[in-house]
Amino acid sequence: MSRLRKEQLVGLLMVSPALILLAVFFLYPLVNSFYMSFHKWPLFGKPKWVGLDNYIFMFQDERFWESLKFTFVYTLTVTPMLFVVALGTALLCNAKAWGTTFFRSIYFLPVVMSFATASYVWLWLYSEMYGVIIYALEFFGFGGEKKNLNVWKTGTSSMWAVNAMVTWKFSGIQMIILIAGLQAIRDDYYEASKLMGASRWQTIWNVTLPLLRPSIALALILSIAGSIQAYEQFVIMTRGGPSNSTKTLVMHTVDMGFDYFKLGPAASLGVIIMIILFVLTVIQLRLFRKNY
Amino acid sequence: MKLFIKLFLISITILPFAKTSYAEELIIWSRGGWSDWMVEGFNKKMADEGKDIVAINNLIGHADFQVKFTAALAAGERVDVANIDLINVPYYAAIGALEDMTDFLKSQPYYDQLNGPMLALGSYDGTHFAAPNAADVSGYVYNKKLMPTPPKDWAEMASMCEDFAAKGQLMMAWPSKSYGGMIFTGMPVAWANGGSWVSKDGKTAELNHPKTVEWFKHYQNLINIGCVPENVDVWDWPDKQDGFLAGDIAMIGTGNFMINVVKDHTEKVDAGFTAFMGSDGSSNSAFIGGDLIAIPVTTGAKEAALEYIEYVLSEAGQIEVYTKNGGIPIRADLFEGNPYLTDDHMVFANASTVGDVPYTTVYQELMDPWQVANQRIFAGEDVQTVLDEQNAIMQKIIDAGH
Predict the structure, then answer these.
(1) What tens digit of pLDDT does each residue of A180-232 get?
(2) Which of A148, A249, B155, B311 is most buried, taking the most CB atoms under 10 A from its CB?
(3) What is the C-alpha separation between A35 and A43, in angstroms, rounded?
(4) Are residues B87 and B152 both part of a single domain?
(5) Is residue B9 part of a domain?
(6) pLDDT tens sequence across B60-109
(7) What's the rounded Cα separation, in Å, for the pair B121 and B98?
(8) Which domain holds residue B78?
């Protein structure tokens, strides 16, 4: 055996554990979901080929369109919220000043908490009778004279209430990604900008943000992918209500598969979510392509 | 040294596969903590009788049970006994996931004493696939410090509501946001009034039954009077329970488990219990929740499984394990003389004999229109219009089948 061939074999051996894990836990479920989506898939007995029936069933189901619409609205609102807070805290915590390391830790702290725990904590904070947030909001005049504010009253207010929790929970991880990007920008650019008489905002707009593009792309891809797959926060905090107005696509998929036991349509929903994520990620990567 | 290493390696390879005993293992899947005590009691009985059967309890959380059990069935994983949330049993029976238990159950001397609606829920096409096991029964809990005696009928409830509203106090609240909470504590009020949710055979949606409409209008009226939180349409289970335990709400719908919960809140709550009543107070009802016990077709020890179920349904299982730990027996002949059934427990025990539980193979899917109906009506929409719309959706789901 030639030396090159031996090296190739050793290389293959080295990456094989990762390849096996990828094949078992990603590729096989992926291919199987695709296969399932074209079948009537009972818990017992043989699956039956039904062609596009599961997809037609999904597209004719009003619940699918409602959950798809809500998932997009949620993604479009929570992504900028998260990004603006993360960018702000990243710029502040990147300053060479006393205490920035401490604040970085503080802002990052919610990230280590489980999503379910964070959702329950905020649910309590939002409690109509005993919640601190509601008390504070009513103190400042929200809820009118009756003082009967409840953030879950409408689909829109419920979504913003969840958005606030998600921003608190996840802006820390985006902040770290952006800080890493900020620290990779060489000081020369800032010195040149200063020599040319640029203001602080002009420097951020014309130097920092363009050079931060790869980090922004990563942060946004993670945020959008996470938002399209939103589940726990809505299951715990809104239960999809009021009247199904905050039901996400993944909630609908889980309901379809494990509550309604309709595995074929659930698999077709999984494939649809995967296609949406793939298309959105490709678009983002093209938009943020390094073209300077 | 080399020989020693070889022997050591061989032994650590073989030992994990070596059996230390030849007892027959019985794999039990449960979702309630009390099942540990039941298994312990059964294992002790087997040891006392010199039988080589050892039950192993696989305790799975309430939230995960259905997903994991469904996945286990689909994968053909061995499960000998399953304690299943009763509302899902018709579906599992319909798809052939459970073993026939008809002969076993009918041969028991207490067959006629088993809880009727639970027994019916474990049946499909005249065959028994599951037995009643553990009952969670619903009813009202009221705080005697705020409400010395509970209302006897709807008219008195409305009148008391006016008094509470005049004092600026909350009399009642319910969890409109929780579909499970509403079918457990709301629908039985409609049943007590003669209302319906689905027909007995599960083939017709009856959400817009005139007597169910009456109940919705009665609760909507309580909101309008002002003794119920204005935002009750978006209240969840913890909202109303926390309010009750803090002494801010006088009466809520709950389950028999509340008897133990209120013991830790005696400073603000002096609890009394009463059954859900219909409009004139002459009839009562309850939602009979809990678990049915069944043998999945993936069992590897059917005879031992039946032996375990026999123990669960026996006096030892139902009284010394289940009732002792706060449960309501699923055998009516075990109510009288039961040392663990207090007067409070008896409210729920009696309610379980007149209570109900809907029979349908698409229960979970029906929860969707049910929740929407609750939230829209308690937000102030027209009762009849909403119920007609949601009933049509329910019928569509039932017709599509599982």
Answers:
(1) 999 999 999 999 999 999 998 899 899 999 999 989 999 999 999 999 999 99
(2) A249
(3) 15
(4) no
(5) no
(6) 988 788 889 988 988 889 999 999 999 999 999 998 999 999 999 999 99
(7) 13
(8) 24-135+289-349
Measured in angstroms, the CA of A14 and the nearest CA of chain B are apart by 26
Residues 258-277 of A with CB under 8 A from B: 258-261
pLDDT in tens, A49-63: 999 999 999 999 999
Distance CA B358, CA B397 (A): 15
Residues B114 and B218 in one domain: no
Residue A279: its H or E element: helix A263-287
B381 has a chain A CB within 8 A of its CB: no
| B372 to chain A, closest Cα gap in Å | 4
The structure tokens listed for B102 are 């008809």
CATH classification of the domain holding A283? 1.10.3720.10
C-beta atoms of B70 and A43 within 8 A = yes
pTM comes to 0.85
Q: Are both B270 and B382 inside the same structural domain? A: yes
B178 contacts chain A (CB < 8 A): yes
- Structurally, how many domains does chain A consist of? 1
Residue A165 lies in a domain: yes
Q: CA B281, CA B151: separation in Å to the nearest integer?
A: 9
Backbone angles phi, psi at B22, to 5 degrees: -110, 20
Reported ipTM: the value is 0.80
Q: Is residue B267 part of a domain?
A: yes
Q: Are residues B153 and B255 in the same domain?
A: yes
